[in-house]
Amino acid sequence: SCKNTVIRNCLLDKGHGGIVIGSEMSGGVKDMVVTQCLMDHTDRGLRVKTRRGRGKTAVIDGLVFRNVEMRGVKAPFVINMFYFCDPDGHSEYVQCRDPQPVDDYTPRLGSLTMEDINATDAQFAGCYFDGLPEMPIGQVVMKNVHITFAPDAQAGQAAMADGRPHVKKLAIYAENVKKIELHNVRIEGYEGERLQFANVGSFEED
User: Which member of 26, 73, 85, 161 has the greatest number of CB atoms within 10 A?
Assistant: First the structure.
């Protein structure tokens, strides 16, 4: 397991993700702080990924992302519980969108907080949160977050999961999340509805 970790003062340049947690973390990741980091032209910024089969000890909880700048990151915030890598990643068991039995193979995502973050020239999606129907993401809290999209943004895959369309300038998408809080979250240059929610239990914004 990984507990009580601080990542600070890092330059994260290009690559699939800036700070990536999972998907192979059967011991869990808890109480991690990421602060004072710059992400420059990574595909995703703050990225959490898991999938069925990782196990009940694969708990990700108490993550805090604070004072982070992103430049040209295509999808700044991605939480994906349908990650499709590995030989069986495209299997019906991993990718089924219907609720499955909660058992020893079910992972869990608890609380994630993002605060004081500025992301410029995003392309695919500002926030993309995709939880399991049988085990939704616990809580996402965003405070003082500013996201702007590049005028010439191209469509692409925000989260690596089957059956998800390529998107462009998608503001906030959330499915299977117990609670979402948005405090002073500004998004500029998006297309379509600002909030696209499905099976979100509780929502508040100010």
Answer: 73
